[in-house]
Backbone:
């Protein structure tokens, strides 16, 4: 099986924390969609197995109109095997999901929404410079459900300067009350050269408090797991049968094709990424060339990636793969540090897999780095 990720690099406005590639200038949107369709055609032979998932990310994919979205589906169905297609996700902003838009989306193959709620509180949304308000955050979910969309995930951000522990608890309770079956939740991070980074450096906004972020992460885990959510990845919580198939395949190392400006692809041995420039992307594709760089992953890079991804999920690190796929120096180094982590009660062995202890999940990346092999 394989997946396709399609990056739609347009937004109505810039969120204060965002460092993804996008543009608020929609002047060349039609030309870019044509280029995306052409890239899909050019790269059709890179995937030899049937598609299982399609994911529209961004940016704001819900900004696409009917003609643009239908043209992408037409191109995919014409050039790829879709007989095993199970999950088609569209990222959407709450302010885009009105009755007219949902009525159209119901007629498409889309069967899963990822709604960028971020918070149900006005003060949080203003800090993040989101395009929607608190009422739209709630209404968009209810409307999507009214139109028959059950497979819905929402994004929630914790740890901002406006998000007290009480506000965070209310955010979680609101999501639970709305019967959302999947939640992706992330700590607010301050990336360089973002609006938020500038505001903090100028003293306009207070810096984030890592201790409070840790507290709110624990509130997140405790609240959702006690309400029948399964934490199947550090930042992702789903009820039974509502895990993201597309993202789960990422974490399991299944191949995927990244289409559009800045999109990444992976085939097990190499990683490729497209240029993060809309005009240059369009120009290069129109010349029948791919605007991408390719990196061949060596053994150490493949090993370290397996460690990083494995520890973040309930699937863990497969010891059978460690023992069979990598050379002895890497294996020896892994087990030496692993024994230390087990003694520190940070990880445990279950059915020949290594998983994090629940209390260690907030520190997953740091623990993974201890297992990395350093040349």
Residues:
């Amino acid at each position: 099986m394989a997946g396709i990720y399609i990056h739609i690099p347009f937004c109505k406005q810039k969120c204060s924390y965002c460092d993804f590639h996008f543009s608020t200038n929609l002047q060349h949107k039609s030309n870019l969609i044509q280029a995306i369709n052409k890239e899909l055609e050019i790269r059709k032979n890179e995937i030899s197995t049937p598609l299982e998932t399609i994911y529209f990310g961004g940016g704001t994919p819900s900004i696409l109109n009917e003609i643009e979205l239908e043209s992408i589906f037409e191109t995919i169905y014409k050039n790829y095997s879709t007989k095993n297609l199970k999950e088609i996700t569209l990222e959407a902003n709450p302010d885009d999901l009105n009755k007219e838009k949902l009525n159209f989306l119901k007629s498409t193959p889309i069967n899963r929404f990822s709604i960028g709620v971020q918070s149900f509180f006005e003060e949080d949304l203003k800090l993040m410079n989101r395009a929607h308000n608190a009422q739209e955050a709630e209404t968009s979910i209810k409307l999507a459900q009214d139109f028959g969309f059950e497979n819905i995930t929402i994004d929630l951000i914790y740890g901002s300067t406006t998000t007290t522990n009480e506000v965070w608890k209310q955010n979680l309770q609101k999501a639970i009350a709305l019967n959302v079956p999947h939640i992706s939740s992330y700590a607010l991070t301050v990336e360089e050269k973002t609006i938020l980074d500038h505001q903090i450096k100028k003293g306009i906004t207070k810096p984030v408090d890592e201790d409070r972020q840790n507290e709110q992460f624990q509130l997140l885990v405790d609240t959702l797991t006690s309400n029948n959510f399964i934490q199947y990845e550090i930042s992702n919580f789903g009820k039974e049968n509502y895990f993201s198939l597309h993202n789960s395949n990422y974490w399991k190392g299944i191949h995927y094709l990244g289409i559009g400006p800045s999109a990444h692809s992976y085939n097990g041995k190499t990683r490729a990424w497209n240029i993060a420039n809309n005009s240059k992307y369009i120009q290069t594709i129109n010349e029948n060339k791919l605007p991408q760089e390719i990196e061949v992953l060596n053994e150490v890079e493949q090993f370290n990636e397996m460690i990083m991804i494995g520890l973040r999920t309930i699937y863990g690190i497969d010891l059978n793969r460690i023992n069979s796929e990598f050379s002895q120096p890497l294996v020896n180094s892994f087990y030496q540090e692993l024994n230390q982590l087990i003694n520190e009660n940070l990880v445990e062995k279950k059915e020949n897999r290594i998983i994090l202890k629940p209390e260690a999940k907030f520190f997953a990346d740091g623990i993974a780095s201890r297992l990395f092999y350093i040349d």
